[in-house]
Protein 1
Amino acid sequence: MNVAFTDLKRQYDIYAQEYESAALRVLRSGWYVLGKELEAFEKRFAEYVGARHCIGVNSGQDALILAVRALGIGEGDEVIVPSNTYIASVLGITENGAIPVFVEPDEYFNISPDKIENAITDKTKAILPVHLYGQACAMDDICDIARRHGLYIIEDCAQSHGAQYKGKMTGTFGDIGCFSFYPTKPLGALGDAGALVTDSDELEQRLRKLRNYGSGKKYVNDLEGVNTRMDELQAALLQVGLEHLEKNNAIRMDIAKRYLDGIKNSAVTLPRTRVGATNVYHVFPLMCGKRDELQRYLEENGVRTLIHYPIPPHMQKCYGRLGIERGALPIAEKYAACEISLPIYVGMPDKEIEYVIETLNRFEEGTE
Ligand SMILES: *Cc1c(COP(=O)(O)O)cnc(C)c1O
């Protein structure tokens, strides 16, 4: 049997009629940028997460870049970020000339709250927690540290749409929450899109200008902004996706439960969820000391997997200039060497889920 890592077509097919009528509505409207579809999506998404404002942009990466910029963080400032995140979290900092300060993750793959304070200096301006793989970070501890040290919080929610900590949505704990709607994310567009959420009227105004050349009023530019607007087509398609987000999250959480109940192999460690947090399982991560061997074995048996992520940011060539040596962040490096992600997506057939479990349970180290 062949099991794809993900298959967007299967998810699309479930909701095809709704997507197609939303798309046609936009195509026939004669209005394609900054119109009523974006307004409607922003309003609904803000309501969904429980924030006062939502500002739609072109990608999760742009949301992160604008969040850092809107808070006035730039040259020489430091921002605390987990050492095992996807590179985009870090690029959001360095694109503004600020310096990423890496803090190691805990056993839940999220930034370790008890290691944050040691990383704070007089240059620190913000903490940028990432709700990695779909699991909410320990936000009460992180908010407490930020409050005591007068730091901003920018949440990277690119993988955590709908995930909560103690009943509160990710994205609403900090000053700004940043979302990606890349097609594979828990809430995905059919192209690139992203958004920021905030409760601050002042940040909202600044972000609306920053995404539109720095202009609030046509041809009047208050700030040096960029062009990163979510287009009307994506905004219409995302309204369809948002309608089904809770259901889609429940489908992935159910697959995760079947993996957690069914996988019994001492060669792998299953992911755990922190008490108080929910996990929407954008990714289902396993840890395995013989990761490469396991990946080859699964591949040979038709099961496609991915590594999230094979090279931690501090070891990427582009960040060689930061001068962080191999071995300096051993937990992130260990995760990069041992993590393997199983297929988990809306539309994944039951028999494929079962096949993944059976195949994994048959894996024996060293008998390839
Ligand atoms: C996907 C992702 C991003 C970037 O989002 P894009 O929309 O692809 O630019 C940022 N951070 C994390 C953790 C992500 O997974």
Note: The two ends are 19 Å apart (CA to CA).
Protein 2
Amino acid sequence: MRKVYLDHSATTPVRPEVLEAMLPYLESRFGNASSIHGSGREAKVALEEAREKVAEVIGAAPSEVFFTSGGTESDNLAIKGTAFANRKKGNHIITSQIEHHAVLESCKFVDNEGFEVTYLPVDSQGLVHGDDLRKAIRDDSTLVSIMHVNNEVGTIQPLEELGKIARDKGVYFHSDAVQSVGKIRIDVQTSNVDMLSMSGHKIHGPKGVGALYVRKGVRITPWTHGGHHERSRRAGTENVPGIVGFARALELMNQELDDQCEHMKNLTETFYRRLVELIPDVVLHGDSSKRVPNILSLSFKGVEGESVILSLDMRGVAVASGSACTSGTLEPSHVLSAMRVPPEIAQGAVRFSFGRDNTMEDVEYVLSLLPEIVQRLRSISPLYAQKQQKQSG
Ligand SMILES: *Cc1c(COP(=O)(O)O)cnc(C)c1O
């Protein structure tokens, strides 16, 4: 059976070039970067070279890049670390309703620890408005955390504008850029961000590694305690093979960014255009232009997203429901709810997220399956049958 993987927002395969860069650090060059002997120094050199690569891609200084165990840890460190370090200034934090759970749950944690959190609304396209942020900032606000690209719908937030509003008010600005780094050019200087979260496995690097950019001078308290690794911001023996792989993956993504953008756009635009010709009542979630080219979140009216996913899976096609993190629960996605998508439509959301290895043949294959699947599911859907009757009667 043909296999088509369209769940790159959940995770991606490690590229051969990345694996090749990592292997020596799992085998012969296994030293601990803190050891002073030759083997340790070898690991330390690799670690610092990786730091330079990551810094270069985002326009930071190497000393502003801190390696972590991934996007989740970076988000936790950014939020808890700055909340607690700046408690004397104030205890108010601002985020949005559509953040990844790594941000939302970190905010919930500090909320329980005596901080106050404001959750900014989004419009029906999933965009945060500058005016809402301006109004929410108070004298005791210390941090604003707004994601760059949403993992469910692919909407791109106006980072520069939001960052500038926070900066003008003297409030730190953090952005979860896990879905954008390596796919959209990011310059931490022009985008006014003070902290930026990144992850390896969303960009064809290994799982369990990522980084947090922290602008020089930002007051942040460590969240993992132990040795003096990562300039005492994040204790723990560095995951040298992972870090080397992550940096290589980011470097490659950045080099190929324009070509990949074009490739992704070509695939998703063709897919969407053909799909709406073949299937009636398809809803696209998120902004139609301010979006990354690789994510399409669609609802087929009258059909459960989970049923589409399972039907496609039986034919070798991997896609996700509204969000991979919430599958297995019956609650509608918090992102689609915040965008005021009616629950019966939100339930039907299916996320198609494309990657560099996908081809036009993959698109054709999925297009050859979907109309039949949706039609079959609609024929047994009480919701859809009623609607059709109403229309014809
Ligand atoms: C995947 C993801 C994360 C979590 O990153 P991990 O490296 O898997 O911990 C955080 N934020 C967003 C937007 C993501 O898509």
Note: The pocket of pyridoxal-5'-phosphate is lined by residues 70-72, 100, 102, 147, 151, 176, 178-179, 199, 201-202, 210 (CB under 6 Å).
